[in-house]
Amino acid sequence: MRSFRSRRTLRATLLAATCALTLVGTSACALTGGGSSASTGSVSAAAADRSVQAGSGQTPTYPAPIPLAEGAAASLDKLSYDGGTPTIAYLPMGTEFNYHLALYEGIKSVPGAESFMLSPYSGSDQAGQLGMLQDVTSRPDVDAILLISFDEHSLAPLVQKAVDAGKAVIIINSDIPNYPSPVDGVVGVSQRVANKKLAQYAVQQSDGSPRQVGILNGEPSYLDTERSGGFIDGLAGSNWTVTAQVNGGWSVEKGNTAAMDLLQANPGVTVLYAANDYMAEGAALAVKSLGRTDVQVYGYDGDTAAIEAIANKDGITATTNTNPVAMGAMAAQYAIDLLNRKAQVGYVDAPTEIVTAENAATILQNPDGLFPKPSQDY
């Protein structure tokens, strides 16, 4: 089993290798690629089957788009693409988290398109992402933009300019139905629904006794509101109560500090929920450091290290796998279909699955659908 320290080292090594390729803009990384994958699955054998296809060179499929809120859909008539091999620009908020790199693994694997990534290192570098969005909007060779947006209001004016310039703009890793400016699509997970199901699962697995819950929030954002709010929704009607909420800053290190503080201030807490797996990994480390064997830790995302921790019973109880590699592939294929007028503007709701000790090894046995790869064979 890998330690949490070795997992952090792995992330740092991967990031250093990635950023060493090309520097673009302010503290930015740029990558190129092209290839396929498939959609994520529900809690069933189909989830594993679809994960096997990720990175296989096959054309990915995705659920039928759901109409966006009124006024939130851009018109495909604005697209300037007129055939040939399209170029897709991917702009995540930052490369400090493997999740954003995993999305790109799926994007660049889709056949029939060229792709590249522009990204600041830090997700807090809003100015860096704004500058990169302006850059790709001005490039005549860019046909579609896949964008992760934590602060939709600051990006909306530039998104509008990109749409007006004839680019297909798709918000990825989100389920926001009413982006402030019209977009060509949204691809992500119904985060509130998925986290509500995770909380309901956790309660169902308990012995019926009351539990005190501590929540590690991410930075204030739509993402945290939906994720943490969904988990709280799932506790309704149960004898589990939320005792404390602390900002865990989305990272392993900050999640570790937040969990340590929360547990020391609230020793009655026996359940920790983290709004992403990095904070969950940090929380599990805090639980170990405090010698607590009575605390369950739940996460969200489907980070490889978290899935391994679940499989090895190494501190994390369960998580929701959103399968970012497959999501990235779906988003890229959706972009291609929009450019060719073969799809409707809307929201693509990627399926999820709850990962437990019972099914974690099965997911890890399909490494082509994961990034980074598992540390060992399962």
Describe the model.
The chain has two domains: 4-189 and 323-353, Response regulator (Rossmann fold, 3-Layer(aba) Sandwich); 191-321, 3-Layer(aba) Sandwich (Rossmann fold). Helix 4 runs parallel beside helix 5 (152-164). The strands form three sheets. The chain has a seven-stranded mixed beta sheet, sandwiched between helices. A four-stranded parallel beta sheet has the order 8-7-9-10, sandwiched between helices. A two-stranded antiparallel ribbon has the order 11-13. The protein is of the alpha/beta class. Helix 9 (277-289) links the parallel strand 9 and strand 10 (296-298). The radius of gyration is 20 Å and the shape is elongated. The chain is built from twelve helices and 13 strands.
